[in-house]
Structures are given as structure tokens and as C-alpha cells.
Write a structure and sequence with these properties.
Rossmann fold; 2 domains; 21 helices; TerL_ATPase
């Protein structure tokens, strides 16, 4: 769509919202009402040419970097036109009598897969090349360097793919093609100037003395450092028309920078008490039903463009398997802030795995062991994972476990964990160690007994504190494999265990495994991969960790059996 300069694109979107109010969340209807109020004021005014110059620049230079449209210039959707037009269209007279842009800060919150990266890239590029700010200092900020690259790399590609921009520019790169900065050199009336772009993450000391004209805060919800945000805002005060451009999804923390700015922005929407800030939030209305597809459409403005209902349906199916999955769906796809400390599994999901009467006699079976070791306060667990199949021929996982606990101060341990360790020891699920420390010889003795009772294939272990014990186990002839506790290693295992629990294909006879699974809180990396976190989990998860370590192998040993084929085979043998 070509930008026509006589069109007010903010008016176009406002008209759509007014005509079809049920299709939009309350937060966006408030943003439209705010825009209409501003049109009636006499102290500020709308410059349609400035609004459309920005829109035209963005559609001319910003290109898709992934997917089927990679390499093509973007076409701004009505909701994006509404936001950008307001940012650059509203003008006022400052204290020095100059006509300057009214908006100095943007808070734009929208679910994932709705084109946030290109929105940020567009604003960044216009600040560097389009708005005419002389000596512009432009920054891209994020929670870490890798996150910042989601905006920095497309910006670098934008410059390199445009001869008009690249002829006077230099893009600076680091390891693996990362973009760390750029400079744009030009002359005005024979005087040389430079606009600079820098990637900033945690080095807040470099902010002192800076004079930023534009700061992009990408995925603000993930930023924990209030100092970086506040220092940049203070450093901008001397500029006539700077922009702090905050763009984010909702997150899983109540203490992040994003939550603070979100709450401030919601108040601005309600009270309209800060002309310098533009607020655009796509989130469900109060009392929403997270299963309602109409809600999905309301809060995903790029539906049927960069995100499809089919993709959301797939994510929704996964979200129903665990509390963590639901939290991921709410925060990433419905733009709802959720409690970051929620357990991965719900009680209703996990408690049914405790089925001792269905375990059967497993002696002699092929098993894979998982080992999670501790010294004092945590549990040490040996998990025995037995891949097998049910009566319907579906593969399933049976898990037996033995826990080792120092007996010292056992009364306090039982009270603190709310677990009857002594009763569990009587039932054979727990083994006490004398004194204050775990006795590794007891663990070796137990594993040696397992080698007699089962066909032990391998021991997978958390390498923390395990070196000496593993050396002794290897001397017994056991194959021992270290399982690093990283999201890149354990994400697939977590997904498979989640699926087995959801499909009721994982059972155990040990109630402590249920306890540990219910305590799991995960940590998620920048790519959305997850792993259990002992630091984030308030209570013990050691048994779950041992089971997951073993399942790094058993997930590949589980195969369904064709029961019909088996019956036919038996008939050929026995007639």
C-alpha cells in the first residue's frame, strides 16, 4: 500500500475501532478516545505531512528479514499506521518557542509474532536517517546482547540493503555477524556531521555523559535494570524532541522495568495526564476467557498477516498440558502479565501419576538411571526409568526412585518441607545417611544392587558435585553420561515428560516424585527453551531432576506396540 499524503491514517484506524468496537480490546478503545480528545485541543496540533513522511520512509526502507516475505519492504497494517502516525504527527510549541514533536516516549505492548521487531527497526531507522535530527545518537537496548540482536541485525541489514543509506554509512560487526553499531556521515552547508547507532545492554556507566536522541528498548518486560532505563531518560532531557521507544510483550515478573512502565502507561490511558507519552496496549479485557477465540483475535492485531489462528490453536493445545504452558500462552500470545514463579505442573496433572498398584514386577527389565547429587540440605535421588508399554500397546514410562537424606535434624527437615521422610523411609522410598552429609558409599551400594535387579543401560547425571562418585561408578563398568542443566539440553526432555503426563503415560510408586514435580519452576532462555531451576523453585525438585536426566535417554527408547500385529504373530506360533 502506497502512502497517500492527503490521508490521515490515524483517523482511518480510529474509524475502524469506532465502527467495530467489539473487535478491539478496551485498552485500544481508550487509546482511540485519547486521540480524538487531542484533536479537539488548541494547545497541540496535527501535522499530517510529518506523520506521512515517517510512514513513507518506513515502508520504503524497512524490509522483512525472515519467512516468505524476506527481502520485501514492509507494508504497515492499520494499527501500525495509527501508532507511527501519532508519534510523528502530534506537534506543540516548547518552552523556547520551537515547534517540536509532542511525543517523547512510546509504550507499545503487543503479543509475539505481531511484527514487534519490524516496528522497532522502523522507528530506529527513521531516527537515524529520516527525521533530520543533526548529530543523532541512537541506541538499541535489551536485557542482554543476544536479545538486542533481534533489532540490531535487521537494522544493519536495512542499511546494507539500501544503497542510498549505505553509501554514507558504516556498519560495525562483532562475532558471528552480530551488529554492534553504525555511523552515518553527512554534510550540511559544508559542515560534517555524524549520526551514530550503538547496541547497549548492561554497561550503564557508558550512559553517563551521553546525549541520546532515540533509545529502543526491545522486550522491555525482560529488562531488570532500572538504572539503564532511568539514566537514559535523564540523559534525554537536553534534546528538543527525543524518543524513548519501548516495545514489549507482557512478561512473567512483577519486578521488572516492563511492569513499572506498564503500570504507568495504564494510568496514562485512564487519566490522560501525560502528553509526552503514547500508549498502545493490546491485552484482553477484564474477566476475559483465555479459551475464547474472539479474545485471541482482539489482542493479536496482525492476525491472518504474521500470525494465524492455526498457529495459535497449536500453541493453545500445548498450553493445556501444564501451568507453565498456560502461563507461556497468556504472556506471549494474549499479552497478559503472569506470575513468574508459577509451578510448571499443576496438582491435577501430576497427582494421577502415583499408581503403585500398576507398577508390576520390573526386575530384569532394561533401565536407565538418573542421578541428582547433593551434600546436605537437598535430596539426593537415584531415578530408575523403565520404558515399557501399556495394554493398548502405547509406550509408557514407569519410574522408581530412591532418595538419600542426612538424618541429622530430621524433625526440622520434615517440618520445613512438609514431607514425612521417616514414614517414607519405612516404606522403602527414602534411605537415611548418618550425620549431616550424604554418604556416597550408600549410593554406590544401592546402584550395585540395581545392577543385580535390572539390566542397567546407562547412568545420566547432573555433573555438579558428582565427579568422585562417577569415577567409582565407572569402575563398576557403568556407562556414565553428564547431562548439563541447560535449556538447550533439557527443553526437549521437559516437553516429552509434559506430554507423557498429559497423555497419562507416566506412572510411579514414589510419592516424593509427585512432590518434586509439583515444585518445578523453569527458567527460559532467549529462544524460549526451558529447564528446571533449583534457584527459582522454592522447594526441592531433586527427584524430578534425576528423572529428567534419565529421560534424556529413555525418551528415545519408547516405542508403541502394534497389538493387532502381535496377536497375529502369536497365532502363527500357537495356532
Amino acid at each position: 500500500m502506497k502512502i497517500t499524503f492527503e490521508t490521515n491514517y490515524a483517523d482511518v484506524y480510529a474509524g475502524l475501532v469506532t465502527k467495530n468496537p467489539k473487535d478491539y480490546p478496551t485498552t485500544i478503545k481508550k487509546a482511540v478516545k485519547r486521540y480524538k480528545r487531542w484533536k479537539k485541543r488548541g494547545d497541540i496540533w496535527w501535522d499530517n505531512n510529518k506523520a506521512n513522511e515517517a510512514l513513507d520512509f518506513i515502508q520504503t526502507y524497512v524490509r522483512h528479514v525472515k519467512g516468505d516475505l524476506a527481502g520485501e519492504t514492509i507494508i504497515l497494517e492499520p494499527w501500525e499506521l495509527f501508532g507511527f502516525a501519532q508519534l510523528y504527527g502530534w506537534q506543540h510549541e516548547d518552552g523556547k518557542g520551537r515547534t517540536v514533536r509532542l511525543i517523547r516516549e512510546v509504550y507499545w505492548q503487543v503479543p509475539k509474532k505481531n511484527g514487534k521487531t519490524l516496528i522497532g527497526t522502523g522507528a530506529l531507522a527513521y531516527a537515524m536517517y529520516g527525521e533530520g535530527e543533526v548529530g543523532a545518537d541512537v541506541y538499541c537496548c535489551a536485557s542482554d546482547f543476544e536479545q538486542a540482536q533481534y533489532a540490531a541485525k535487521p537494522f544493519g541489514a536495512l542499511v546494507e540493503n539500501s544503497p542510498v543509506l549505505y553509501n554514507n554509512s558504516q556498519v560495525f560487526k562483532g562475532k558471528a555477524g552480530s551488529v554492534i553499531g553504525a555511523v552515518y556521515r553527512y554534510q550540511i552547508d559544508g559542515v560534517a556531521f555524524e549520526n551514530t547507532f550503538k547496541v547497549m545492554t548492561k554497561n550503564t556507566g557508558k550512559i553517563e555523559g551521553s546525549n541520546p536522541s532515540f533509545v529502543l528498548n526491545d522486550e522491555l518486560h525482560a529488562q531488570k535494570n532500572m538504572e539503564q532505563y532511568d539514566n537514559f531518560k535523564s540523559a534525554m532531557l537536553e534534546r528538543a524532541q527525543p524518543i524513548m521507544f519501548n516495545i514489549s510483550t507482557a512478561g512473567k515478573s512483577s519486578s521488572s522495568v516492563g511492569m513499572r512502565v506498564y503500570k504507568e502507561s495504564k494510568e496514562i490511558l485512564d487519566k490522560d495526564n501525560d502528553d509526552s507519552r503514547l500508549v498502545l496496549i493490546y491485552e484482553p479485557n477484564k474477566g476475559y476467557d483465555w479459551t475464547d477465540r474472539h479474545v485471541w483475535r482482539q489482542v493479536n492485531p496482525n492476525i491472518d498477516v504474521s500470525i494465524t489462528m492455526e498457529a495459535l490453536e497449536i500453541e493453545f493445545l500445548a498450553a493445556q498440558r501444564s501451568e507453565h504452558g498456560k502461563g507461556e500462552f497468556l504472556s506471549k500470545h494474549l499479552d497478559v502479565f503472569v506470575n513468574g514463579a508459577e509451578s510448571f505442573f499443576s496438582r491435577d496433572q501430576v497427582e494421577p501419576i502415583l499408581q503403585p498398584d500398576k507398577m508390576g514386577d520390573l526386575r530384569g527389565e532394561a533401565v536407565w538411571l538418573g542421578l541428582d547429587l547433593s551434600k546436605t540440605t537437598d535430596l539426593t535421588c537415584v531415578s530408575i526409568n523403565i520404558p515399557t508399554f501399556g495394554e493398548d500397546g502405547k509406550s509408557m514410562l514407569k519410574v522408581k526412585q530412591r532418595y538419600f537424606i542426612p538424618y541429622d535434624n530430621i524433625d526440622y527437615r520434615e517440618q520445613q518441607d512438609n514431607v514425612p521422610y521417616r514414614k517414607l523411609a519405612e516404606e522403602g522410598f527414602v534411605e537415611f545417611c548418618d550425620g549431616k552429609m550424604i554418604d556416597q558409599d550408600q549410593i554406590i551400594e544401592y546402584i550395585t544392587q540395581l545392577m543385580s535387579d535390572y539390566d542397567v543401560q546407562r547412568i545420566n547425571y547432573d555433573p555438579a558435585m558428582a565427579q568422585k562418585l562417577i569415577e567409582k561408578l565407572e569402575n563398576l563398568g557403568l556407562d556414565c553420561v553428564a547431562i548439563m542443566q541447560y535449556p538447550t539440553v533439557l527443553n526437549e526432555v521437559m516437553d516429552d515428560v509434559e506430554r507423557l503426563i498429559y497423555e497419562k503415560r507416566l506412572i510411579t510408586d514414589n510419592p516424593l516424585l509427585v512432590y518434586c514435580l509439583l515444585n518445578i519452576v523453569v527458567v527460559t532462555n532467549i529462544n524460549g527453551l526451558k529447564a528446571p531451576s533449583k534457584t527459582k523453585s522454592a522447594k526441592k525438585i531433586d527427584g524430578a531432576a534425576a528423572m529428567l536426566d534419565a529421560h534424556k535417554s529413555t525418551q528415545f527408547e519408547m516405542e508403541d506396540v502394534d497389538t493387532a500385529g502381535l496377536d497375529d504373530y502369536l497365532k502363527t506360533i500357537y495356532g
